[in-house]
Write the structure tokens for this entry.
Amino acid sequence: MNTATCPSDVIYIGARVGCSVPSRLGAVVFSEPSGRHQALVMFASAFVMVGIYLYFDVLRDGYLLSSLIMAVGFALSGFAESLPTDRRRAAGGLRVVAILWLIGLLGLTVFAPDIVLGPGSGGH
């Protein structure tokens, strides 16, 4: 069933029926870019994360790799939202890359915390 014929007003016992999860996910990921306001929020978030990275690198003589990784993810999302409305596929591709990038950070945090959080944070 494609997303154009997916009924959004059919509700049975609190759950929507008629649309599969992949079709809804595709509709959200490959939707039109949200515009300048959303892009500004994402770019500001990336700027804050770079600031956190620089603060720990310069003033604390260490670094938080996670903040730099999150800054890249937020910047990718900001680029996706700042594209023109007719660039849905490109925006969707950038969103997918940003999501995978941030999931990679989560995986690194779980399986290799020393890389993300610094030496001595392995829990021993």
Notes: The first strand starts at residue 11 and ends at 12. The chain is about 65% helix and 5% strand. Strands lie at 11-12, 15-16. The CA atoms of residues 11 and 31 lie 23 Å apart.
